Amino acid sequence: MPPPCGPKGHYSLIDYFHNESNIRGIKMNSEKFTSASKVCEFVNNNPDHAIEILNNFDIDFCCGGFKTLEQACGEKGLDHEQILSQLVDDSKKSADVVDWALLDTTDLVDHIVGVHHMYLKETFPKLDGLMEKVINAHGENHPELFDLQKVVRSLRADLEPHMMKEENILFPMIKSLDGSLESAPAHCGSVANPIRVMMADHEHAGMILEKIKTMTNNYSPPEDACETYRLLFKTLKQIEADLLLHVHKENNLLFPQALSQVA
Ligand SMILES: [Fe+2]
Ligand SMILES: [Fe+2]
Q: Which of 34, 110, 159, 182 is most exposed, with the fewest beta carbons within 10 Å of its own?
């Protein structure tokens, strides 16, 4: 195992990423899963099915994706063997090829920006408009909407500059590692430090999402909700689903690959 870079002991995942066998483990799409497999590996292998099951059991697959299934289940008091049998049910295997799990860093960056950053950039302004309409119509009977609006705004205020930092600073560095972008070559500290910051941002965004989930009673609109109200909750639920996958791709695929290139 090559020596780790970055401040030692500050972020143990950074050290973990330098173990090349762990990186290969993520990408091999092995059919032989066990309870010792990492949670993120199940998502890479069969995303839709794995995400549905992991969400049902409230198991974190993005920021906590590097835990083994046994660890993650143990923390929640769940039976890992029973969940494993559901996760490896081949009848639920998607026929679609999971191309992003095998992309190299440059293609993965383009995929993340083109799919997930684009989605958020398009959705946040629509969400603001929806929130405003629902508050105008229902704010009097549902004053809790004003608090929800503040939290939703804080998610946007976090994520827009976060994506800008990724697109303008970190992602060009990552692209320079495989020579697909002409710029000064990135070095160990220069990549590890922004990755550490981005991962901390992801954790913070995850906490905001949890807050939104609780405030909306798991995205369940009240009985008197109109169509716009329902659409607002549906959009918030879609944002959560998209963001979990987005963070999974960065934390568990892109960042480990980039760090392995400067090890
Ligand atoms: Fe991103
Ligand atoms: Fe990110």
A: 182
C-alpha of residue 199 to centroid of ligand 2, in Å: 7
**Cβ neighbours, 10 Å, residue 234:** 13
- What is the per-residue pLDDT for 99? 75
Q: Which pLDDT tens digit goes with each residue over 187-229?
A: 556 789 999 999 999 999 999 999 999 999 999 999 999 999 9
- For 85-94, write each residue's pLDDT tens digit: 999 886 666 6
CB 228 within 8 A of CB 19: no
Q: Helix crossing, 188-215 with 227-248: angle to 10°?
A: 150
Ligand 1 centroid–CA 145 distance in Å is: 28
Domain coverage including residue 257? 103-262
CA of 250 to the centre of ligand 1 (A): 7
In a domain, 19, yes or no: no
Paired with 38 in beta bridges are 68
Decide if 22 is inside a domain.
Answer: no
Q: What total of structural domains would you count in the chain?
A: 2
* Residues surrounding ion ligand 1 at CB below 5 Å: 166
In angstroms, what is the span from residue 82 Cα to ligand 1's centroid?
33
